[in-house]
Protein 1
Amino acid sequence: MSHSPILEVQHICKTYPSGTRSLTVLNDISFSVFPGETCAIVGPSGSGKSTLLGLCAGLDRPTSGTIRINDTDISPLDEDERAQLRNQYIGFVFQTFQLLPTLTAMENVMVPLELRKERNIAGRAEELLDQVGLRDRLDHYPTQLSGGEQQRVAIARAFINRPRLLFADEPTGNLDSETSSTIIDLLFDLNRYHETTLVLVTHDMSLASRTGRILKLSGGVLERDLQNEPQNL
Ligand SMILES: Nc1ncnc2c1ncn2[C@@H]1O[C@H](COP(=O)(O)OP(=O)(O)OP(=O)(O)O)[C@@H](O)[C@H]1O
Ligand SMILES: [Mg+2]
């Protein structure tokens, strides 16, 4: 394991305006994640898990504090520079999938590589959709897919640029147990073969127990940072 973290979060706070007051959603969170680590963020609904994941991936800015991805402080970067950094290093599976409604499953999966102007990407998109069990749904639009199927498209899309850092918000939240275990295996395979660092938000303790480390959020505070027993893969 390298000595330099791929993700370094230092003293971040996130505050939202709420009427005339302000609401502190994350309060002084610090942790580092090293290349190849697997890490679960757990905690009750509303504890700030999705907010934290979005900040770590550079999708939003903290109110204060620093986030470094691969030694780059992302706060001074403008929108385009952050998008470029995400495209280069990061895959993200959103809790609400965020598929583009006017594109088919195949087209949605190809978007990150098209942004990188890569060619011959259809084969890889097809292979990934096959791996998540959607070989027969390549030309379906999101409205023609079930919730679990949309989630699998979102997962295939997150994998396609072979990210060094994969963030997944409830990646198995809408899946039956069989598909869920296929997806989990896929996530951990990716972690092992490509040394992709995984940071997952989950309510599923059986998934959390497979990661190397569990961060527990409670009311916007990092309550615990536990190293799991050697990975039970
Ligand atoms: N854009 C926003 N404006 C104002 N408040 C927000 C915004 N986004 C999130 N919040 C608040 O921040 C808190 C944390 O939200 P977040 O989505 O991070 O929770 P979570 O831990 O992911 O919950 P869940 O398990 O239900 O997904 C919530 O109380 C929510 O109301
Ligand atoms: Mg959430």
Note: The radius of gyration is 17 Å.
Protein 2
Amino acid sequence: MLEGQVAVVTGGANGIGRASALRFAAEGAAVVVADLQQSAAESVVDEIVAAGGRAVACSLEAGSREQNEEMADLAMSSFGRLDVLLTAAGISHGHYSSGDLEAEVKRATRRMEVAEQPGQAFLDIELDDWQRVIDVNVTGTFLAMQAAVRRMVETDTRGRIITIASIAAKNPDAGPTAYTVSKAGVWMLTKKAARELASAGIRVNAIGPGYIRTNMTALIHQIPEVEDRLMGQVPMGRVGEPSDIAAAALWLASDESAYMTGEILHPAGGYFTG
Ligand SMILES: NC(=O)c1ccc[n+]([C@@H]2O[C@H](COP(=O)([O-])OP(=O)(O)OC[C@H]3O[C@@H](n4cnc5c(N)ncnc54)[C@H](O)[C@@H]3O)[C@@H](O)[C@H]2O)c1
């Protein structure tokens, strides 16, 4: 479906980004796998190349304008064009490090204690935590979009951009405060960019996943009561897989969604229908 095209995937080293990078490559795209975790990004590139595809790894701090521009330049210098951008780099809180489950368990224990004191969870939000979430999730998405759009416009490419928001963009119960605010920001940014870029032939859509089995949700599956409660809220009765999101991303990246822009898809097993 993406034969001869070039895709850039931020957060491509793990979870949803990794699955999307693998799927795009399997569908014929050359892929730039960009992530803070350089060696994990290189492993994804190795997987793609071993399967006969084309990919390069890119070290990316999502909040850096310079590094986002370098990422877009790498797509141009390696593969000569940039057709698709998927922004999956994201954090659930300011100290999130993908794969560090021990730190997640400690943080969750602290939060459960605090939640029992009225108003304290809100008062405990640290400014640097808040700022980091906004920097990575919102500003990072914006900077990647701007870098990609610059190349798409310069080369008159009818590009497609897919942002990864969350059900938390619309449901305040689906994550911590800064996270839900950041995802609402990603969703509004998606809508705004779709309207601004339609005249340039660039389509911009979001995916707002429900609970997907990645490092970000690994904690949920450590605590059986929490897992049971959450799965009880999902009518389809199962957690989503990263491949479920990659399939939605592929559709949005392809011409099969040619008349779609400024929309959000919610692969969430029926958990969120609003
Ligand atoms: N897992 C879910 O249930 C779920 C639900 C809704 C939305 N999302 C969103 O999906 C996206 C992908 O998350 P995931 O679930 O695959 O988790 P993940 O931890 O597996 O993947 C996130 C990736 O982003 C990278 N990253 C984090 N900070 C970065 C930075 N500053 N610069 C560059 N890369 C950075 C990480 O290294 C990691 O590879 C996130 O935006 C997340 O908010 C996830």
Note: The chain is about 45% helix and 10% strand.
